[in-house]
Amino acid sequence: MTSILNTVDTSHEDLIHDAALDYYGLKLATCSSDRSVKIFDAQKQYLIEDLRRHEGPVWQVAWAHPMFGNYLASCSYDKSVIVWKEMNNNKWSPVYVYQGHDSSVNTVSWAPCEFGLIFACGSSDGSISIVSLNGDGNWQARKIDNAHPTGCTSVSWAPAFTVEDQSGSTLGVKRIVSGGCDNVVKIWREDQNGQWGLDQSLQGHNDWVRDVAWSHNIIHNKTNIASCSQSGKVIIWSCDLSDTGNGALSMWKSNVLHEFNTVVWHVSWSLTSNMLAVSTGDNKVTIWKEDHFGKYECINDDKLGSI
């Protein structure tokens, strides 16, 4: 198999903290400690925009679904989330700035498009915000206080699947998963009144949870969450949807994917949800693939084997 490696000279003046392709893989967004967000043409590899509005290091960028237009969110040490929108001729402008946190905003994630234009963000102040664009053009924020009292490091949305309750009705329930400095993975759920509450706490890490990722699709009638930690442990959490009732996802099983000898910074599912990319502190990325029996195998490093 022939692989093609392309590199983009971002010309960032400090550490790059995140890079994300848009839905179609045509645009690349990057962010850095130099306080900038940059947008590139991913194919021709040239700079489209250099966005400078943040007043501190920018930790993460996230693209919204293109059905709403081209929106990009960025979160920063300056306690803010900026929502950028492409206007005309590749010109981008900030259309909303969320400043509802008291400390660094470490993570931002857009909801599935079925729920509308909504993002979640987590902060070192321990809280999580869910911010949505209403039909009147105004943004509304709801907050989960003390979600992770010592700081939230990561958030990820559940896919927009429906669950049948005991009456036979289908429920489209909004859920997010979060990780924090309390070593815990937590699942949050919105109730019928629009309030968010704790659905489940998943214990399995013994150090800071650095990242969480909810799989995009249902595989083998299961929904999966990946989490990784400062200690190097990666866990796959699985819930069998055939065992659910009243929209609850309560029966989570854990499987340790691997224990690396260094911090694991990031986990990311493929769109098909059967492969997981894991990035570690030794500047390596490993790819793990699930077979039809639910077994994961590392497909790009023979020394790691399978579980």
Automatic annotation (TrEMBL):
InterPro entries: Sec13/Seh1_fam, WD40/YVTN_repeat-like_dom_sf, WD40_repeat_dom_sf, WD40_rpt. Belongs to the WD repeat SEC13 family. SMART domains: WD40 (SM00320). It comes from the Eukaryota. It is found in: Lysosome; Nucleus, Nuclear pore complex. This is Protein SEC13 homolog. One of its GO terms (biological process) is protein import into nucleus. GO terms for molecular function: structural molecule activity. Its main location: other. The keyword Cell cycle does not apply. WD repeats lie at residues 51-85. Keywords: Lysosome, mRNA transport, Nuclear pore complex, Nucleus, Protein transport, Repeat, Translocation, Transport, WD repeat. GO terms for cellular component: COPII vesicle coat; lysosome; nuclear pore outer ring. PROSITE patterns: WD_REPEATS_2 (PS50082).
